[in-house]
Each structure stands twice: as structure tokens, then as C-alpha cells.
Design goal:
Layout lengths: L7 E11 L2 E7 L13 E4 L2 E7 L4 E6 L1 H6 L10 E6 L18 E11 L2 E7 L13 E4 L2 E4 L2 E3 L2 E6 L1 H6 L10 E6 L1 H10 L19 H6 L6
Antiparallel strand pairs: 1-2, 1-6, 2-5, 3-4, 3-6, 4-5, 7-8, 7-13, 8-12, 9-10, 9-13, 11-12
Length: 225
Amino acid sequence: MFTGIIESIGSIRAMTPKGGDVRLLVDTGKLDLGDVKLGDSIAVSGVCLTVVDLPGNGFAADVSRETLDCTAMSDLKAGSPVNLEKALTPTTRLGGHLVSGHVDGVGEVVARSENARAVEFRIRAPKELAKYIAHKGSITVDGTSLTVNAVDGAEFALTIIPHTLSETIMASYQPGRRVNLEVDLLARYLERLLMGDKAAESDSRQKPASNITESFLAANGYLKS
């Protein structure tokens, strides 16, 4: 689990094909690896990866074909900047929201505009994720915990303050950029809960219509004020 508070901007040192998938070598920048050991998890732009080697000032991780197909990691190349966060511990301050590091879909930056010292982004999510995105709710973009400022269909808006721009890779976002999206875990569990007994049916029999709406989330205290 992660918090969505980025600890360092790293960069891809190498992406090496290996037995049908990819071995990723990441330069971790200012990220402290003193307490990291083989088998630990590190989120790379929102994707939870397992450390398989620690060659010094970085780490290596294997990226499966499934992960490459379901995330924007296939867009990376040597030199690409990435957001980095180590897995949380029982004493970690939860400054963002609970993030699993399991990407739900790939979105696209469709607009960028300046707003005083902040930058506003509009991102288009896959249609199947739109029902989980709510005004003032939480969403993870490339591993960064953010608050949704507006929703219009499958598109949502974000206002990014200077500190977040300087501590994440978001300053480089331009229209057309693909980004990893993870919706709020609570929305996922609420949908499953609202299915009731139908949750025990096989996928071929399930025809669930989500009852999760913005008004439902607000009434039950899941939206930020």
C-alpha cells in the first residue's frame, strides 16, 4: 500500500527485454534506499513493482507483459522521469489517501492551462472508470494523490499547486500525455457491497448497474469538503 505522496522523482536508466517481458532499472534520485531490501515494493509512477536487485543508487524490477499492456509503462524509455514512492509502514503519516499501486486504466491529458501560480489539467479517463470519479473525491495520477476539482462525463479537472509541480513529474505534462490512473479504493468496495447477493454470481450472470453517485458519496461522508 502507498499514500500517493511522491517521495522522489527518479528516471529510467534502462529497459531491457527479458524472456518476453522487461527488466526495469530505475535511478532513484533523492529516494533513500537505506531501508529497502529485495522483495520490497516501490511504486513507479503509480505502478507497484517488486525490487529484484539493488545495484547502487537505484533498483531493478521485472515488469510483466500484463503490466505493460494495462499501464502507460510501455511509453517509458531510458531517461524518462518517473514518480517514486516506497510502500507505507505502520508509522507512515497518511498525507494522501490509500493507494494500492494497481492501475485501473490509462488516461490522457487533454488540456493544460495556467491559473495564477497553479496549473490546471483536464484528463480523460477510460469510460468504464468514469463512475468512480467524483467532484472533490480522490484519484491517483501516475502515483500522485490528487483531488478532483470538476467532472464532465469521463473527463475530470485538477488544479496543481507549485509544490506538487516541483515534487512530481506533472510539470512536464502536455496534452496527449498518457497517465496511469487508480480510482479511490472506497468506490471500488462500495460498488461491490451494493451488489449484495449478486456479488456471489459468476461474471457471466452479473449485470450490475452501479449505484455509486456523487450524491451518494457526499451523503456518506466520502467526499472532501
